[in-house]
Write a structure and sequence with these properties.
Length: about 170
């Protein structure tokens, strides 16, 4: 006897009952009665027949093992497809140029923060190390820029010191 098919059929019946019960409201009493009888018979068979019980439990183990294996492979597939492009370091010469252009300070007009500015990629592409795509920002403004708190156009203007307003 193929216990795995019996267990799968029972699981399908439970799911079908929970989905179809609201649809067949007028027949709910009869459907519940038939389902209850099937459930009682299934439980009695598990309790009374050790071979049936062993078959059902091994079938459940097999089903869950297959399910876990499938979930692992799906997770691995997802991790392979969602990998970010490798981040390459910004060349030292370009870093020096960005710091020199900014005077070693955050390039947002009116920012008074002096400690450890960081280089931000304006187009959000961490592999695009073109000089015109980089701006020096303090950690607070860098976080804001990472969460798209500034428009790209605005960052380009601030980078070139062409906009002196503080409208973000």
């Amino acid at each position: 006897m193929n216990y795995e098919r019996i267990v799968v059929l029972f699981i399908v019946l439970v799911i079908a009952y929970s989905i179809l019960a609201p649809i067949f409201q007028p027949y709910l009493l009869w459907i519940s009665l038939v389902f209850g009888i099937l459930l009682i018979v299934f439980i009695c068979c598990i309790l009374m027949f050790p071979r049936f019980r062993q078959g059902v439990f091994s079938a459940l183990k097999s089903i869950f093992t297959k399910l876990l294996s499938w979930l692992r492979t799906e997770r691995e597939k997802q991790s392979l497809t969602s990998t970010k492009p490798q981040r390459t370091p910004i060349p030292e010469e370009i870093k020096k140029q960005v710091f020199s252009r900014a005077g070693g300070r955050c390039q947002i007009p009116g920012c008074k923060e002096l400690e450890s500015p960081v280089i931000h990629h304006i187009d959000q592409d961490r592999t695009n190390h073109r000089f015109d795509n980089l701006i020096l920002l303090c950690s607070n403004h860098h976080t804001t820029a990472d969460h798209r708190g500034f428009r790209k156009e605005q960052l380009h203007l601030w980078k070139e010191h062409k906009n002196l307003s503080q409208n973000y």
